[in-house]
Amino acid sequence: MNLPIGRNALLQALPAIALGLLTPHLNPRPLVRGDVLIRAGERVSVVYFPVSGVVSLVVPTAGGIGVESAMIGREGLVGGCLAPEPARAFTDAIVQLPGAALAISRAALAGAAQRSAPIHAMIARFQDLLLAQTQQAAACNALHGVVARTCRWLLQVRQRSDDDMLPLTQEFMAQMLGVQRTTVTLVTRTLQDAGLIKQERGRLIVLDQNGLMNAACECYATMTRQLEEMLPAHEPGAL
Question: Residue 142 — φ and ψ, nearest 5°?
């Protein structure tokens, strides 16, 4: 079976011997939009290395409304941690954009990490990145206006999908940004009037990426720099 290992930055950067410990346990898994890969409070049994698509880590609330704390694409992994068993998730992991992943049992990944320093370092490095990105997103949500935050968020989705056409609904955007749908409607209308995006039913098209970058808060540049500094180099055009 030909696995698309090279499409995930973490797997691609592993030395051949370390990767050989994981390859027999990796299995292709479609990422269907809206699927909940991991639920908050539940034991993590499967870890996912996305090769396409985007997964959102969503903090659930008592009122049933979740807010995104981070997003993961082909630069990382979903559910990987170095904590001892039983490892339980703190957030829901929900497929935001459809794609595919390579799945591995947490037990197999943990066993490989115990035998391989590069695998252990890979997981630790991504945990550090995820913490940094989550902290930056929290600061962004507290300090910056909704237009700038929306531009930052759209750029991050675009960065991971590598496509100007994003299958996003206003309802989903409102949930991820932690705002009302009416607010998203006003913001996207403003961005569309400025010629930065085009909103269609069930999708959003980025027309002017540089314009979005100019309208975004500094958090986009900060989070991009974190990705570049903390993660290994990947194939051209990818994260």
Answer: -85, -30
Per-residue pLDDT tens for 160-200?
Answer: 988 899 999 888 899 888 888 999 999 999 999 999 999 98
**Could you give the CA distance from residue 70 to residue 33 in angstroms, rounded to a whole number?**
17
What pTM was computed for the model? 0.90
- Report the helix count and the strand count for the chain, using DSSP H and E: 9, 8
Q: How far apart (Å, rounded) are the C-alpha atoms in residues 71 and 160?
A: 9
pLDDT for 115-149, tens place per residue?
Answer: 999 999 999 999 999 999 999 998 998 899 999 99
- Would you say 94 and 135 are in contact if contact means Cβ atoms under 8 Å apart? no
CATH number of 5-115: 2.60.120.10
Asked whether 49 and 11 are in contact (CB, 8 A), the reply is yes
Q: Mapping DSSP to helix (H, G, I), strand (E, B) and coil, where does residue 49 land?
A: strand
Domain 145-216, CATH 3.90.650.10 — does that match?
Answer: no
Helix (H) or strand (E) holding 205: strand 203-206
- Parse the chain into domains and list their residue ranges: 5-115, 145-216
Main-chain phi, psi angles of 109, to 5 degrees: -65, -40
Q: Which residue has the higher pLDDT, 14 or 63?
A: 14
Q: Would you state the structure tokens that stand for residue 170, as one six-digit string?
A: 């206003």
